[in-house]
């Protein structure tokens, strides 16, 4: 922590946003400052996002990569579990969080679909699911039900309240695939890593 100001990056981020700057531009300006702080080389990516940048949309869950609530999107488009990465893994790379996907004053289509289809209840897992869904749709704009289920299983996203039907319907709505087929949702637990 820097003695004079423990949150200089977060302060600068908030000042930039208050002026109406684009979030990506603000993050770009502060990225080099963030990674020059040697403490962060030993810190997890999740902690860097929340504690240093003040981006609280990324949630803390299991901290072991088993729940998906900390999902962000890497510059390669892949869904990344931020709790399993170190801040220095991101040095010089772009990382997109839930705060960075929507246009100013609006919502990203995935966010809109989650609201329209009731895929949000307590909301705790929602940012992780939205980031995972965005990564899937960026790579595969028209996924099948099976591809959606496989993706959500591979990114380990868990929801304890909503269930998966509304989440799948939301992703399908953004992809342009209809909701005409019946839903049977089952996820296969792999090696007991689904929170049991």
Number of helices: 7
Distance between the termini: 37 Å
| Unreliable stretches | 1-14, 20-41, 179-189, 191-196
- Strand content range: under 5%
Q: Quick one: overall form?
A: globular
Give, in order, the helices and strands: HHHEEEHHHH
The helicity comes to 25-40%
The tally of strands reads: 3
Offer a concise description of the structure:
The protein is mostly helical and 196 residues long. It has seven helices and three strands.
Task: Characterise the protein shown here.
By secondary structure, the chain is mainly alpha-helical. Helices cover 39% and strands 5% of the residues. It has helices spanning 8-18, 23-36, 45-52, 109-116, 126-139, 145-154, 165-175; strands at residues 71-74, 79-81, 95-96. Strands 2-1-3 form a three-stranded antiparallel sheet, covered by helices on one side. The longest helix has 14 residues, at 23-36. It is globular, with a radius of gyration of 17 Å. Residues 1-14, 20-41, 179-189 and 191-196 have low confidence and may be disordered.
Structure characteristics:
single chain; 196 residues; mainly alpha; 3-stranded antiparallel sheet; 7 helices; 3 strands; globular; disordered N terminus; disordered C terminus
Task: Outline the secondary-structure elements.
Blueprint: H1 8-18, H2 23-36, H3 45-52, E1 71-74, E2 79-81, E3 95-96, H4 109-116, H5 126-139, H6 145-154, H7 165-175
Antiparallel strand pairs: 1-2, 1-3
Helix pairs in contact: 1-2, 4-7
């Amino acid at each position: 922590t820097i003695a004079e100001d423990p949150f200089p990056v977060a302060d600068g981020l908030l000042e930039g946003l208050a002026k109406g700057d684009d979030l990506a531009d603000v993050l770009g300006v502060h990225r080099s400052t963030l990674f020059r702080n040697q403490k962060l080389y030993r810190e997890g990516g999740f902690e860097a996002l929340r504690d240093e940048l003040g981006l609280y949309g990324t949630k803390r869950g299991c901290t072991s990569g088993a729940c998906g609530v900390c999902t962000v999107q890497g510059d390669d488009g892949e869904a990344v579990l931020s709790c399993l990465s170190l801040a220095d893994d991101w040095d010089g790379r772009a990382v997109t969080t839930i705060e960075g996907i929507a246009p100013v004053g609006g919502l990203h289509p995935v966010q809109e679909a989650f609201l329209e289809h009731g895929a949000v209840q307590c909301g705790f897992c929602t940012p992780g699911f939205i980031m995972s869904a965005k990564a899937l749709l960026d790579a595969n704009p028209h996924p099948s039900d099976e591809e959606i289920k496989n993706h959500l299983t591979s990114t380990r996203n868990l929801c304890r309240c909503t269930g998966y039907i509304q989440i799948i319907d939301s992703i399908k709505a953004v992809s342009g695939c209809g909701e005409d087929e019946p839903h049977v949702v089952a996820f296969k637990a792999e090696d007991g890593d689904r929170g049991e």
